[in-house]
Amino acid sequence: MLRVSIGAIMIFSNGPSKLLSPGPFIEHRAKEGIPLPTMTGYPAILAETIFPLLIMLGIFTRISVLIEAVNMLVAAFVYTAPH
Fold this sequence. Notes:
Low-confidence stretches: none
């Protein structure tokens, strides 16, 4: 139950808008000065949509959680670093 609720929160809070329209997200990354915004943006979008779905379904949970944790750590460091 916890796995399903956490996966649903991750998907519905971040993923669908970025998955359906990745352009604004990629542009925001470029404005923030993140290197290679396109090459790092699409994996981030996948990490916020596909991997939580795998966690919810119980498929490849350990690798999915690892990828999701790395994605969240990178996001935390990138967006809280002084500019």
